[in-house]
Prior knowledge:
single chain
Amino acid sequence: MILSLARLQLLAFWRAPYLGGRLALGAAKGIGVAYAVGSLAIIGFVWPDLMGVVLPAMDPVTTVEAFVLPALAALTVLRFLFQEVPTRAAEAFLLLPVSRRRVAAAVLARSLASPLNLVPLAFLMPFAGRAVRLADGPGAAWAVGGGAVLLVALSHFLFTIWKTRLGARPISTTLGVLGAMGAVAAAEVVSGGMLGAVREGAWGWLVGGALAVGVSGGVTYRALLTSLYLDHARPFRRLRQPGTLRLGFERPGVSAFAELDRQLIARTTFPRGIVGNAAVVSVALTIVALLVDVGVSPDLVLVFSTGTLAGSLGQYALPFASGHWDRLLTLPGALTSFVRAKWMTVGVGTFALGAAQLAVVLVLAPEKAWLVGVSVLFSLGVLAPAALWGSTLAPKPVDVAERLAFNYKAQSFGAQVAVASTAIAAGALIALAGPARGAALAAVLGAAGVAAAPLWLRALERRVRRTRHAVAARFRGAL
């Protein structure tokens, strides 16, 4: 099955358009991965000699063991940016008479060879084979190597669970993944360093890690299997008013299109996953900024705290409408209501996230609660316009029933550039203004953007109207 999957993916690669660009990109990626793996393998092997020359007073083994978990945490962030979800590789099998269980097992096994799994192991395995073996013997080397494999596998499984389940079951997925990460951190504290404890003979931690990886692997398999069954989700609950999702088409208006957006977020997995991701990241950043000194002003983090939702949801304004864009163009006056409803949807979401942020800040740092209001104003007046405008820059069609939340391939590059450049420019101005005036400047910028909303909404409507046929062609071309 794995070989068949690889063969079909290879055929799809050769038959897809823009073969030259795909070959160049694939070659660049392959060379980069090969260079990283080779370099880290050499460094891992010569690590004792390197440390003996550069830092002879430090123990080469304990130095690495102290940085394994922080390095894996940073690796998890890179997974969200660059690693694809395994079910992307199963698209060719969905219409074939092949058992979905075999497909799920095959894509899960194949996903283990991800470069983000190979790169850390390229350093840790030679490190365990030489540095640990020289210091504590071959038994300790095998134990440390096995522990490293288990930690990397656990990171991979938790990432896959988050990607495939968040849109369908946001609360249970968030609690489960965060609980597993908290358990790993607690085990690291209790053991005084899990790899160090395993190296010294505490094999119970290795057995516990194997059990945790086994459980998370089973949950990952079930999540992949469920995501392959498009009709496996719980049936939608019947609405009190049948045809609510057609409100925007039957009587177009701002409130009707806003209700349509609300139903899309409430009933479909991809929009719900986008909102869930933004909310979780926002609250997590706020908690970390208030409890840990990360080198960034907590005030600056709080000013941007609600911007994750405004930026994420706003840049999908047009892609979320890709399924009914042609129908939208046939309604008189619908584009005006559509554009204003999108800002209303982003505004309601920003206020809701602001309320959640306010509860967190009131518990951790009540004196900074006023910054949440500044954040809401800044998001509505600065980040939301940038995201909404960015959604018109070469938008990509989105299947709102898709389960793979936070997939960077579904995001328009123009939208990402628009949001990122606006956030960087505004953040630089606020940082230059200093702690005393930065929040005031953010409030002024946000208030100016909200006050100028009639102007930029009219300009946005003109742009949507001017590019409506080009956007329709892009959406149809992806079918």
